[in-house]
Design a protein that fits this description.
It is a single chain. By secondary structure, the protein is an alpha+beta fold. 25% of the residues lie in helices and 34% in strands. The chain has eight helices and 20 strands. The radius of gyration is 21 Å and the shape is globular.
């Protein structure tokens, strides 16, 4: 399920004299909580997003699909921009993600066990002027890439260059593939076992060992203590890093973050929503700015983890090279990922793929 500014098929839109083609494909799993949002024609800039919901309801993913774009453009930082076609400031994007998170957390009428990962990309052709960009170049793709928080300098963008921002929370991903098959991973999963910076951040937060306010007074906690005492376990009223246990008592999977004993556990370290999760899990997105040089054709792919759990980036680049049609490329990836999940015994997860051909 998703929102598309035009009918859901291959779509072409003009960036000045240039062309953007878009394709979308979904394979619905057991939960039907993936969402997407694509806005191209008659909008200030091109916007595409994929949201991977988790928990008991799709409320968080639905809210992201319906509200995130408006939240970004309604932020005070962006409203002060003299040119509405300019890309939003990083602060506006961060505030929008956090505002969505607050909306979910402060709504007493919704199921608290709802959350979403997100990846969003915003693109605009550059007019003569400044664009804040890093000094880290990938010449193979004609890219200048900046990760938020690094040292940056102001650089004069060439007219006709494509300026873009990608923001993400959780394990949805964005990658850029050149005509020659070179791949740039624009995002890095917010998971403990693959992201050392996130592990360090979580460990620093857990050192505080603060007990969630009101937790020990709840009926849920009293039952937790009672059950733990029966088996001689001392319950923990603070969040911690550990591994899940299967029905057979064996430890399974990678490290996750537990809110407290018998509490909610998540593999991801950032998400929107998840009211009952550990407080070290945050909604603040990471943001990367990049410039695609004029006439440097590339293919941008956004997808949920249903794809990336079974295919690495090189495999994805190899597969999409089989067709020049972005709609067919998206469908190829989603259908093959579904089959690979089935034959490998993995869960029937939602899979969403957005393919954007740039020039």
């Amino acid at each position: 399920m998703g929102r598309f500014a035009e009918p859901l098929h291959e779509f072409e839109d003009q960036f000045g004299n240039e062309t953007l083609s878009v394709g979308v494909a979904q394979e619905i799993g057991t939960k039907d909580q993936d969402r997407y949002d694509i806005r191209t024609k008659d909008y200030p800039y091109c916007y595409a997003a994929v949201f991977d919901g988790h928990g008991l309801t799709s409320y968080a993913a639905d809210l992201c699909m319906n509200e995130l774009y408006d939240y970004i453009n309604g932020s005070p930082e962006n409203a002060r921009s003299s040119k509405r076609q300019e890309l939003p400031e990083d602060e506006a994007i961060i505030n929008a993600y956090q505002r969505l998170d607050d909306t979910i957390r402060k709504n007493p009428e919704i199921e608290p066990r709802t959350g979403a990962c997100a990846v969003t990309v915003m693109m605009q052709l550059q007019e003569a002027g400044n664009f804040i960009d890093a000094d880290n170049d990938d010449e193979s793709l004609g890219l200048d890439i900046d990760s938020r928080g690094s040292d940056t300098d102001a650089r004069i963008g060439r007219s006709g260059d494509l300026c873009a921002k990608v923001a993400w929370t959780g394990d949805c991903r964005a990658l850029l593939i050149s005509e020659t098959g070179d791949v740039v991973e624009l995002t890095k999963d917010h998971r403990l076992h693959v992201n050392e910076n996130e592990r360090l951040r979580i460990e620093k937060e857990l050192e505080k060992r603060e007990i969630r306010e009101g937790l020990v007074d709840t009926e849920m906690w009293k039952k937790t203590v009672e059950q733990a005492n029966k088996v001689g376990i001392i319950p923990r009223a603070h969040s911690f890093v550990g591994r899940r246990t299967g029905n057979d008592g064996q430890v399974v999977g990678n490290d996750v973050i537990f809110a407290h004993t018998n509490g909610l556990s998540l593999q991801i370290t950032r998400s929107i929503g998840d009211k009952n999760a550990a407080r070290s899990i945050i909604a603040t997105p990471e943001i990367r700015n990049f410039i695609l040089k004029k006439n440097e054709s590339s293919r941008l792919i956004l997808a949920s983890d249903g794809l990336f759990d079974v295919y690495d980036c090189k495999d994805i680049a190899r597969l999409v090279a089989k067709t020049s049609n972005p709609r067919k490329a998206a469908k190829l990836l989603s259908s093959k990922a579904k089959n690979r999940r089935l034959y490998s015994g993995k869960s029937i997860d939602d899979i969403t793929v957005v393919v954007l051909d740039l020039w």
